[in-house]
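Working notes for the structural subgroup meeting. M.R. asked for a predicted model of this chain before we commit to crystallization trials. I am recording the input and output together here so anyone reviewing the notebook later can reproduce the run.

Input as submitted:
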Amino acid sequence: DGVVSFRREKFVPFGGPDGGDGGDGGDVVIRADSGVTSLRIFRQKRFYKAVDGKNGGGKKKHGKKGEDLVLTVPVGTVVSHKTQIGGDALIADLEQLGQQVVIARGGKGGLGNIHFTSSTNQAPRIAQKGEAGEENTLILELRLIADVGIIGYPNVGKSTLLAAASAAKPKIASSPGLRTKHLLRNPRTNLGLNLSQHLHSFSHK
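Returned structure, recorded in token form:
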């Protein structure tokens, strides 16, 4: 918020206004980080708020801007929000390491009383409150991209290999056709595996 303040000096008993402006609020930012492998944390906590800007001060001191809040997500996260007609509107596709997007901007800081002097009011005792920041409800989706594709006919050991190379626990038996498709990313190795027996779905030359 802006502040109401007046000059107070030894030889200036009736100084003019010197109230400074308040600082802007911090932004909420989403950034793609290779060290993050899931969106699980956003199930546990659903509301996030950046730091408010500091109030202005006397002697025309401007309040400090609020610190931004940076939320880290896996590379491949799609950020969207619900529209008024019920559909999803894309905000950003964070497919590159370090890519980021501002999802809620902080409010503008209020003006101090130095801005409200006029020919009829040389000592204004009013200041402006800061504006509220943006508030958004978002949808986060993680698009997994496989690093390795395991392709083979039924009952040739794809599920056995998948179980040995990852934390997945597919059913393993002698009968064919138990596993048709499996996409997994191992958080320990960050290795994506795609398992399929549909050979005809892959083009070749």
